[in-house]
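Reopening: structure tokens for the adenosine monophosphate complex, inputs below.
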Amino acid sequence: MLKFFNTLTRKKEEFKPLKGKEVDIYACGPTVYNYAHIGNLRTYIFEDVLRKTLIYNNYKVKEVMNITDVGHLVSDADVGEDKVEAAARKEKKSAWDIAEFYAKAFKQDLKRLNIMEPDEWCKATDTIEEQIEFVKGLEDKGFTYKTADGIYFDTSGLKDYGKLAKLNIEGLKVGKRVKQGEKKNVTDFALWKFSPEDEKRQMEWDSPWGKGFPGWHIECSAIAKKYFGDQFDIHVGGIDHVPIHHTNEIAQGEALTGKVPARYWLHGEFLLLDKGKMAKSKGEFIALQTLIDKGYNPLSFRYLCMEAHYRSKLNFSWKSLDAAQNALNNLYNKVRELDGEDKVLENYQNEFLNTINDDLDTPKALTVVWKLLKSNEDAGAKKSTLLYFDKVLGLGLSELKRVEIPEKVRKLVDEREEARKNKDWNRADELRNYIKKMGYDVEDTKEKTKIRKLRN
Ligand code: AMP
Ligand code: ZN
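Re-run output (same inputs, fresh job):
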């Protein structure tokens, strides 16, 4: 049985898709005005584990991911500059080039983290027509009104607006921390924004309400509707999307169709840096390339993320990344040594499945990996079972090659064996140093001397 924690009900629920063994997933994609930081990437790693777990359970998954290349404003309160246009100004490039450049960089990051690409990528700017249609539908149903700067969604028209986040609407009103401006309710949000009169936007379109651009939330509603219709199975994203972005997607969907657009809402917790939030807009963030430049294997970061449950906060530190990299290298070395009969161990497979199917418990799944490695099972069976697990874990185990030890190194190892037999410890140490200089090391175990490559 597959169970996921559904933010909508705040419960771990048995997963039942709408169409038998087919699962439709919508994932909020990146806003392409900068590189993704490793916090963003933690969310995409969680989503990849989700997707691979479904595939592992023989579901046929279709995932759609949007690319936000317009409409995401600097402030969630529908004011301020468009993030992509602001970056264009700063980098002296066109908004289109900025979006193209960072979308490409994002796709490269996914590849480096062994994250499967979605079945469909969809840019916000490629669905302007669908978004306008959606807003027209909301207008027909009486959910919209006009202000000086755009067309807004009237959240008071829904009786349970904010249920996803269990928003305290009264509290928001009293607190007055949210700028209301011309909006009728503090929680109302922009569906269509008018282009400013004093400045020419690079990205703008004609609409029934005048020249402008779509709001950020309508993009995801319109794209999900385009690919999946009124309702689909799973909607994923980072935890910060609960109170505003996904709350508003639900409002738009319910207003138009009477249905909550997705049945299961799964959210990944934040990656924290020095106990604080990591944000793209602050400018001081760690990209995947930063890790690579420092000599880390990107998959060490994937391993680190899987050591924590996706619903727990994870505090990033270089020390924890070092530890993850050591663990991963250790795993690689052990898997490289395994050889023999090809047989998947059913008991371990079931144990693994039970952990991963229980709301994606990757920390427990990793303990099953190490338990199997330490067991007395046949080496070949260990290897085939681990390769099977890796269909979910995505640590690149199937690409590992058995280490070919050069003849010269083998000779030195034999010589060292001889020296040890003769209790000539000085000579043995000297030979070990030669071996190390050649990029290998020896480990003396009871049965035999093992040789391993020092760098990957
Ligand atoms: P953005 O590109 O800003 O639209 O965000 C892309 C994804 O990253 C969204 O699903 C966010 O919820 C998520 N996200 C943003 N910051 C973090 C963080 N520090 N840790 C984990 N996920 C994050
Ligand atoms: Zn979205």
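The mean pLDDT is 92. The first strand starts at residue 3 and ends at 6. Marking as resolved unless the reporter disagrees.
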